[in-house]
Amino acid sequence: MGFSTIAIHAGNEPDPATGAVSVPIYQTSTYAQEAVGVHKGYEYARTQNPTRAALEKNISALENAKFGYAFASGMSATDAVLKLVKAGDHVILGDNTYGGTFRLFNRVLSNYGVEFDLVDTTEISNLEQAFKPNTKMVFVETPTNPIMSVTDLQAVSDVSHAHGAKVVCDNTFMSPYLQRPIDFGVDIVVHSTTKYLNGHSDSVGGFVALNDEKDAEWIQFIQNSVGAILSPMDSFLVLRGTKTLAVRMEAHDKNGRQVANFLVEHPKIQKVYYPGLTSHPQYELAKKQQKGFGGMVAFETGSLDNAKKVLERVKLCTLGESLGGVESLISHPASMTHASVPVDKREKLGITDGLVRISVGIEDIEDILEDLDQALSYS
Ligand code: P1T
Q1: Which residue, of 25, 187, 259, 342, has the fewest CB within 10 Å?
Q2: Kind and range of the H or E element at 209?
Q3: pLDDT for 278-337, tens place per residue?
Q4: What is the pTM of this model?
Q5: Which range of residues forms the domain containing residue 259?
Q6: Contact predicate 152/163, CB 8 Å
Q7: How far is the CA of 213 from the centre of ligand 1 (A)?
């Protein structure tokens, strides 16, 4: 079956009670039981909810995974995955991730006896050198937020598995339409569904997709035990969002390429980070591993002053954190999404005070380009 057919039908069975074509929002905290221990498979809504179950079927099918669990946010999904490691274990984390992911490792996980090292995984030789006897997990984002570095998922999987470590990929920037990490040997995929999967900037959520039954049981156990579940309303919204994922991602990809090409030619821009540019260091890999390049573009304006001018002059693009919605969003990673990354690490990666990130929406491209053009015409 094709991607859109799966997106529209997986998990989206007509409601058994009424025949409703759209999975209803089962807004209930509990379920009536016929007798003690006799019920319809639903006992308490932290543990099971039909709207959430439909979404879990849907996204796991899109990621080519047997199992999937929906969480209250992308961060709680990542946190659940990190509960697969224990005190005394070592984790390798890609050196450029969403700032909140770095913060979770640096400020939370480190308090529980789990060691981690940051590694530039765009070079497999760096990864090979980073393994320790107690390395249990390699966690990467590709393309990275916001520098858009691309990691070879097949190579990371091969090397990590040879060292007995599981591979986790945060696939938020691509969505399963543009990249399916499990097809390259990745063990666990995490998402912030807040972004492209929902796609309309009106829900916060997260997802874990995987094939290993034992790990899946543990993730489900964590989901129920900790309780960071996705609500029925949010499950409904994301389920509605994924139905149009393919058409939205095609449109984001098309507009993203044009914005990147426009910025590359602009005299005020010093550098553009977008894997679809032939000048991108991993352009060939991105072409091979991804179905497209997506709608995330970052660019260097040269100074905080210049970045502020662009961010304050835009009219159509909205200044704000987040990404992946139908509307174009523009942000300042150094002070917003990556403020929790120490300044020396940020600068080494290229997350300077002059860096601006745009989540290119699916408005008419002429309007997006006109807005960027007028925002960049400051003196
Ligand atoms: O916000 P939340 O749903 O908890 O997702 C966290 C998260 C995880 N992974 C990636 C790659 C992300 O980009 C994010 C959240 N990112 C932003 C809010 C942002 O503007 O970059």
Answers
A1: 342
A2: strand 206-210
A3: 999 999 999 999 999 999 999 999 999 999 999 999 999 999 999 999 999 999 999 999
A4: 0.98
A5: 246-375
A6: no
A7: 27
